[in-house]
Every structure is written in structure tokens, then in C-alpha cells.
């Protein structure tokens, strides 16, 4: 898992880490998953390649293998779809799916603009992935408070050595 260690985190943050790890490890075809805040910052991520046997390590692990790249793409797609819904007056976005030759990308709203993004193998069962993402959103949405988002951002900053101004 590319997310930071859960040592020192609140029980809600540890639970969210556990849910994300379970999502990636248990759902066939998922390659990487990221939880992104409404302002586009990576809160949590997990790459299946971190847990895969050596013979599977050469498989694609997500956009350039980077959780930061996946979070950028998820944030951008989330913004585009919200703008499209406003323009077309179709209500809120529930899920966005992009099917590509070498994989699929799923983006689902969690709460308060936070997003769950998943990169999957080209032969994945899209309905299974969408179902499990919806389960994650249902379990995570009510606990992803502003305080928890701040805690997760801070833990990602500590992991990467990024120090935001004022903190």
C-alpha cells in the first residue's frame, strides 16, 4: 500500500486505510485506487502491485505507477463531470467510467466533493468494480469529515516529506 503507516492515526483513519486496502486486494481487476479531496489533494492510495507476486509486478499499476498521477486524473475528471452536469442540468454526478484499450478508469463521488478513483485492468468486470466502489463510498462517506480529511492530508504530507505552508 502506498498510503502512509497507520501508526498514530485515529481509528477512523485506520478504518479508512483498511477499507481501501481491502477494496484493492479483494476486487479482481483493480490495479490502483485513490481517495482525493475536493481540492484535488491525495488523501489515500493503494496499488495492488505493492502486494502482487513477483511475476505480476510487471503488470501496469496505474498512470505511470504513481498515486499522485491517479489523483490528478481523478480530480480533473471529477471537475469536468460536475461542470457538465451543471451545464446540462442533469443533477449530481454519481459515477464516471472511461473505458480505454489498456484499462478502465472509474470515478465516484464520496462526500463533500471528495472522490474515489480506480484504475482497472482492461478485462475487468466493470459492474463488479462499480458495485464494490459503491460499497466503499457507502462505508466511507459518513466518516470522511473535514477533520479526517485534514488528518489524512497531514499523514500523506509526512510520508512524502511535503510541508505545506502554514503547517
Please describe the structure with a list of short key phrases separated by commas or semicolons.
single chain; 167 residues; alpha+beta; five-stranded antiparallel beta sheet; globular; disordered C terminus
Write the layout of secondary structure elements.
Blueprint: H1 11-26, E1 30-36, E2 42-47, H2 67-88, E3 95-100, E4 103-109, E5 115-120, H3 126-140, H4 146-160
Antiparallel strand pairs: 1-2, 1-5, 3-4, 4-5
The helical percent reads 40-55%
The total strand number stands at 5
* Cα end-to-end separation: 25 Å
Order of helices and strands: HEEHEEEHH
How would you classify the helix and strand content by structural class? alpha+beta
Identify the overall geometry.
Answer: globular
Strand order, main sheet: write it out: 2-1-5-4-3
Share of β-strand residues: 15-25%
> Which oligomeric state applies?
single chain
**Could you tell me the radius of gyration in angstroms?**
15 Å
Low-confidence stretches: 48-57, 59-65, 163-167
Mean pLDDT: 80
Largest sheet: 5 strands, antiparallel
Number of helices: 4
Amino acid at each position: 500500500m502506498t498510503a502512509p503507516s497507520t501508526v498514530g492515526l485515529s481509528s477512523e483513519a485506520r478504518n479508512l486505510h483498511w477499507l481501501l486496502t481491502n477494496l484493492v486486494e479483494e476486487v479482481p481487476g483493480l490495479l490502483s485506487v485513490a481517495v482525493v479531496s475536493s481540492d484535488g489533494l491525495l488523501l489515500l492510495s493503494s496499488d495492488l502491485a505493492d502486494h502482487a507476486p513477483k511475476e505480476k509486478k510487471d503488470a501496469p499499476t496505474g498512470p505511470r505507477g504513481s498515486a499522485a498521477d491517479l489523483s490528478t486524473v481523478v480530480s480533473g475528471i471529477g471537475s469536468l463531470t460536475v461542470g457538465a452536469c451543471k451545464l446540462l442540468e442533469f443533477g449530481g454526478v454519481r459515477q464516471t467510467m472511461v473505458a480505454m484499450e489498456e484499462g478502465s478508469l472509474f470515478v465516484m463521488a464520496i462526500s463533500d466533493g471528495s472522490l474515489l478513483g480506480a484504475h482497472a485492468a482492461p478485462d475487468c468486470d466493470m459492474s463488479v468494480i462499480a458495485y464494490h466502489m459503491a460499497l466503499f463510498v457507502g462505508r466511507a462517506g459518513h466518516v470522511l469529515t473535514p477533520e479526517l480529511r485534514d488528518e489524512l492530508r497531514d499523514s500523506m504530507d509526512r510520508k512524502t516529506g511535503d510541508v505545506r505552508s502554514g503547517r
